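Data availability (excerpt). The following record was deposited with the supplementary files.
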Amino acid sequence: IDTTEDHPCPPICGVDTHSQDGVFTDSAKITEYIEKLGIDNSRPILNWIAFKNTPPEGLFAAENVGVQFSKICRGEWRYDAKSQSYLRWIEQDLNINLMVPLVDKNTGETLLFRNVIILFADYIIYTPTLYDIEIWNNKEGKRAALFRDGFIQEGIWKVCDDKHPIQLFDTADNPLYLKPGNTWIIIASTQTTLDSVVDGKWEMKFALP
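Predicted structure:
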């Protein structure tokens, strides 16, 4: 395993540091590394989200979620009722619209998540490839979309300050309940669109200011 240019391995390892799955880490090794540096690693209070096994009634179907970041970068989330999760697919050749499952390199199994969340945030552009994303400065709330159980639920996300995690609420400012399990979060710009193209299929098209 190679060491990345800016970080030792562990905690951050990988050979192809410019691909979406070319860099990885080991949480146990990160703990060891932090303790070696003498940094406080006590467990923080992360009361940021609530969970329920079932979603509320009256939601729109969302069995397929396309995420188009650019002409050459696309991801899809395809709901699998058996696992009650969204399976992750990525582009192999967008010229012929060929998508393939994104698999765990250790197990060969398709990556799946119980929740997929899109957060819409303000981007500060410096150059076409260099920008900041405003996370802390969001006390009033910005749009969030939660996909779970094959449905979409609209909501908002907030951050009190730089010492607190992101919190999720529904449109009535009540807690936005996630399905127990793992979660994938996408941070899009406020200019990004998210639309229903046909029943059960949604498309996100990323756009910068």
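Summary of structural features: The chain has a mean pLDDT of 89.
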